[in-house]
Amino acid sequence: MSTTKKLTTSALLVALATVLMWVSKLIPAPWLQGGSVTIASMVPIIFVGILYGTKWGLCSSLAYAIIQMMFGFYPPPTQTFLNFVLVILLDYIIAFGVLGLSGLIYKLCGQKAYSAGIAAFTVTLARYVCHILSGILIWGVYAEEGQTVFAYSLIYNGSYMIPEIIISTIVTVLIFKSRIIKKR
Predict the structure, then answer these.
(1) How far, in Å, CA of 5 to CA of 21, rounded?
(2) Separation CA 121–CA 164 (nearest Å)
(3) Interior angle at CA 118, CA 57 and CA 62, nearest 5
């Protein structure tokens, strides 16, 4: 497959992910410090990795992370340089970057029909872990009195990431099984 076709398809899937993210934002979210349940907005990025491998998946997920940051950056509560760097890394670059590893996981699982679902579940779970770490290291100041920072981060981030994990996994499996997108 030509580089031009891979680049074009990857760009279209990043654009689709962005549109799905924006359509989802039309539904008001109760989360004050960010996060939302979307209409499978991570699935197109997951498919770039599955279709074209880790290199293309990581490049596309990095592009998507930058777009996410441009449209929804939440500055940290403590305005230090380290906190800004950690927010950029844990809430954007690494959190969305792990989506690009879907191709690697798909390949490690033997490229079977169920492998796409395992890849989607694993990379979205990894994103959840990034947000938990961010919540512990940065956003814990919002924890209610008497609540541990870990519990706060687990619950807050789980309130939108657990539905995201479920939606992304199911939609990835359904698309993969329907052969709408064919592995090349």
Answers:
(1) 24
(2) 10
(3) 20
State the DSSP code for 26.
T
Report the 10 Å Cβ neighbour count for 172: 27
Q: Say whether pLDDT at 104 is over 70.
A: yes
Contact 160, 36 (CB under 8 A): yes
- The pTM (predicted TM-score) of the whole model is 0.91
Q: Which two tokens stand for residue 172?
A: 């990835």
- CA atoms within a 13 Å half-sphere pointing along the CA-CB vector of 40: 17
The pLDDT tens digits for 63-87 are: 999 999 998 777 787 778 998 999 9
Contacts of 101 (CB under 8 A, 6+ apart): 49, 54, 57, 58, 122, 123, 126
